[in-house]
Amino acid sequence: MKPTWYVEMKNTWDTLNLIENADPWTTRASIAKLLNLSRTTASTIVSQLISCGLVDELDSSSNGRGRPGIPLRLSTTTWNALGASFHGDQWQFLLVDLRGQTILEHRERLDEITVDQFIDKLLHGLDQMITAAPGKLLPLIGIGTPGLVDSDTGIITRADDLGWKRVEIGSKVTEHTGLPCYAMNRHRAAGLAEAKFGLGRGIRNLIYIGIGTGISAAFINDGILLEGANYSA
Length: 233
Description:
Distance between the termini: 33 Å
CATH class of the largest domain: Alpha Beta
Number of domains: 2
Largest sheet: 5 strands, mixed
Shape: globular
Number of strands: 13
């Protein structure tokens, strides 16, 4: 039997995922039915998500039978998500809402492709975006970099096209911003974004090929990104 905390976490995650993918919205009653939850449990979870600023209630709706349901959808006003990806000779920064809509973009071009410039421009750009963010930042910054990246440690283990080995990036971002950082290969990050918000939305199996200073790919199987040994898939 699963522990109570696990069941509660899974129910909350499934509820949030259902609200995110509803077209255009869903209700507490629909959530209870689709997830096989009691209406009390579904209502409690939704109330918690609303109090956290993750979900908004819209005007009541009715299908002509019984009490009208209250439509629910992801909030677009409270939380912002911040990410950065390196391409060519510049960092590209993006701030989005919970539905993936762009709020702000920014670029930082390197004067020369060195590790010091790479890190300095990243931190400077993050400062600019954090200052300009209109909402609260989700407590995680996503970073897409060239090369083979160990996402557990936030280290670029090797970037052959740049001649780099063991470049620490995750720890430097966290030390500078005070926020956790998740770093991964930029093309895998792009593949995930395409699957989540782009042409691959709703497709469970997807191959994304990225061509830049090198060639890399993201393999998504049954909705899950395949990492491989040492994040080398």
